[in-house]
């Protein structure tokens, strides 16, 4: 039995090429996940914030519906509020500054600089969390109101003015429609 080395070598090379192509394909599928691990964290963060955001939307809708139904000529009010974002949280940053003595003996602050790192506080559980300066509520991107009685121009204008006053939304982002 004689082995044909050229044929055998050709089969091995063909197999190596398939394996290499397969490994390259797997690498291309896995690589985006390795390069952007923030994506997974952002997805988790959004899913955590979504219930709070929906609860805030619902509270706005209920309160606005309640107040609009008290307007003269307006009844059976339904409100839908959409939010532009989930709000913003502002964190304290570590800062350093140089104090200089002046000729009259007082101190003057000079060269205040932030190193870009967050100021941390110790939690009760032994961990650390960033120091929150303030949390801004989410911005409203649009409001839809359906109600009976808003077919009259004056009543519709009153509803739009009320929504604008309460939510600080421009008029072009408020839609008021007559309910069937």
Describe the 3D structure.
Helix content is 43%, strand content 33%. It contains 3 helices and 9 strands; from the N terminus they run H-H-E-E-E-E-E-E-E-E-H-E. The chain has a 3-stranded mixed β-sheet with strand order 1-8-9. A two-stranded antiparallel sheet has the order 2-7. Helix 3 (153-167) links the parallel strand 8 (140-148) and strand 9. It is flat, with a radius of gyration of 31 Å. It starts with a helix and ends with a strand.
Task: Please describe the topology of this protein.
Elements: H1 5-35, H2 38-68, E1 75-83, E2 88-91, E3 93-101, E4 107-118, E5 120-122, E6 128-130, E7 132-136, E8 140-148, H3 153-167, E9 174-178
**Model regions low in confidence, pLDDT < 50 over at least 5 residues:** 36-48
Q: What is the β-strand count?
A: 9
What order do the SSEs take from the amino end to the carboxyl end, as H and E?
A: HHEEEEEEEEHE
Output mean pLDDT: 77
Oligomer: single chain
Helix content: 40-55%
Give the CA-CA distance, first to last residue: 91 Å
Shape: flat
Largest beta-sheet characterization: 3 strands, mixed
Figure out the total of helices.
Answer: 3
Strand content: 25-35%
Kindly provide the radius of gyration, computed on alpha-carbon positions and rounded to a whole number of angstroms. Answer: 31 Å
Widest sheet, order of strands: 1-8-9
Structural class: alpha+beta
